[in-house]
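A reminder from the course coordinator: this example appears on the midterm review sheet, so study it carefully.

Given structure:
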């Protein structure tokens, strides 16, 4: 029986920093590149396509974190995922510079009506020839709700709202038949109106009456992505997701998560294994282990402690400026992203983790496993994560860019291909065809 081949995505943000705090200080970060300009994103896309990645995956936040010291000062001061520009604007830039690479874009359901969301995503799917994914989120951070002047709803209500949100999206996406456009110049009929159904949606949270304003796109709907880690989030993903992004610090937690998701898939009537499990991973690669370790130490040296605390506060909720740096984080109540917090707790195999240790560890790569070594070392661990942890692929978190992706493509991709664990060409024309292939 042949072993599964890895799927790869580049995990970035439309900003100066992505998921390693302080990387803008690194001597190799964005040398001769400006992240605010299209040329940078075109190069990133071409690099990922050269490495046969499925997609560039763009995370997002809607406002600066303001939990730390009850202010966003530290977030702004240390460029903690700030500034961050709108993510979907990158899609046509990247897909216009590539032929196969998809783009996954994080867009919140909290402040935009489903009608306009469908219009935007379908338009992007057209412009990219079917290479768009949507990471569906509901906005977990109070700073986002404050920025939009809305009272924050609790987690369960956000998921109820998101469930209805997708129901309306599905109706709109499916309202245009594939053959609705006839474009008959002789009769003057462009669209057969009998093949474009009017929506009359009357839900608890949303109402919509009328036809979708955008014709059916190449994929019909974008690839749906989810990253929920709570029980409610996993149930939501089991009902809707085609791929799931998860962060777990070791093989045991990965396997436990994979088994749980597949059980939930079966409960919803879906085939276990039908949803791709893409685990977060950060790599530091060099020709020798000594060189790789030296690179890793340089990365860690760029991380400001206060910036790390601000990021951790933004994701998890508590104001960590009020805690002793040597206090154990296990003793602190966490209202924020539970799954990512668990990655910190298990980072030392269940041993106590201090606030200081947690912040510096989390600021390196959001609690993902960090693989430091030669191409063979990294490929060994990736194979273990696939064979024993249930991973279908990996979300590769950026350090210094674009160099970290160039190094991975040049060194690790050939090693995976040599082992028969990675594609040597794209198999499909759309993102769905490439991502869901085996």
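Designed residues:
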């Amino acid at each position: 029986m042949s072993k599964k081949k890895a799927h790869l995505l580049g995990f970035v943000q439309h900003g100066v920093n992505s998921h390693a705090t302080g990387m803008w200080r690194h001597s190799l970060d964005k040398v001769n590149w400006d992240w605010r300009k299209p040329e940078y994103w075109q190069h990133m896309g071409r690099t990922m396509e050269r490495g046969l990645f499925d997609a560039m995956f763009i995370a997002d936040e809607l406002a600066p974190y303001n939990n730390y010291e009850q202010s966003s000062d530290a977030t702004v001061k240390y460029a903690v995922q700030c500034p961050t520009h709108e993510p979907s604007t990158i899609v046509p830039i990247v897909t216009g510079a590539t032929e196969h690479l998809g783009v996954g874009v994080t867009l919140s359901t909290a402040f935009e009506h489903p009608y306009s969301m469908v219009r935007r995503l379908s338009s992007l799917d057209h412009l990219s020839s079917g290479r768009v994914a949507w990471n569906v989120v509901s906005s977990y951070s109070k700073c986002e709700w404050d920025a939009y002047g809305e009272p924050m709803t609790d987690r369960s209500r956000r998921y109820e709202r998101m469930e209805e949100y997708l129901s309306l999206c599905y109706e709109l996406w499916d309202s245009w038949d594939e053959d609705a456009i006839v474009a008959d110049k002789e009769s003057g009929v462009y669209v057969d109106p009998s093949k474009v159904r009017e929506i009359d949606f009357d839900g608890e949270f949303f109402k919509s009456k009328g036809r979708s304003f955008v014709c059916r796109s190449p994929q019909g709907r974008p690839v749906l992505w989810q990253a929920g880690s709570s029980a409610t989030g996993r149930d939501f993903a089991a009902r809707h997701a085609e791929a799931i992004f998860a962060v777990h610090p070791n093989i045991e937690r990965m396997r436990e998560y994979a088994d749980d998701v597949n059980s939930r898939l079966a409960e919803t009537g879906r085939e276990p294994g039908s949803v791709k499990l893409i685990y977060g991973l950060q790599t530091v690669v060099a020709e020798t282990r000594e060189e790789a370790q030296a690179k890793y130490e340089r990365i860690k040296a760029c991380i400001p402690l206060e910036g790390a605390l601000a990021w951790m506060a933004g994701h998890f909720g508590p104001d960590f400026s009020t805690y002793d740096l040597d206090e154990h984080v296990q003793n602190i109540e966490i209202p924020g992203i539970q799954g990512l917090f668990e990655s910190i707790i298990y980072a030392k195999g269940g041993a106590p983790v201090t606030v200081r240790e947690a912040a510096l560890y989390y600021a390196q790569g959001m609690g993902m496993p960090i693989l430091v070594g030669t191409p063979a070392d990294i490929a060994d661990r990736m194979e273990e994560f696939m064979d024993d942890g249930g991973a279908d692929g990996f979300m590769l978190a950026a350090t210094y860019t674009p160099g970290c992706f160039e190094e991975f493509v040049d060194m690790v991709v050939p090693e995976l291909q040599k082992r028969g664990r990675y594609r040597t060409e794209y198999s499909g024309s759309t993102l769905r065809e490439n991502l869901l292939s085996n």
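The chain is about 40% helix and 15% strand. The mean pLDDT is 95.
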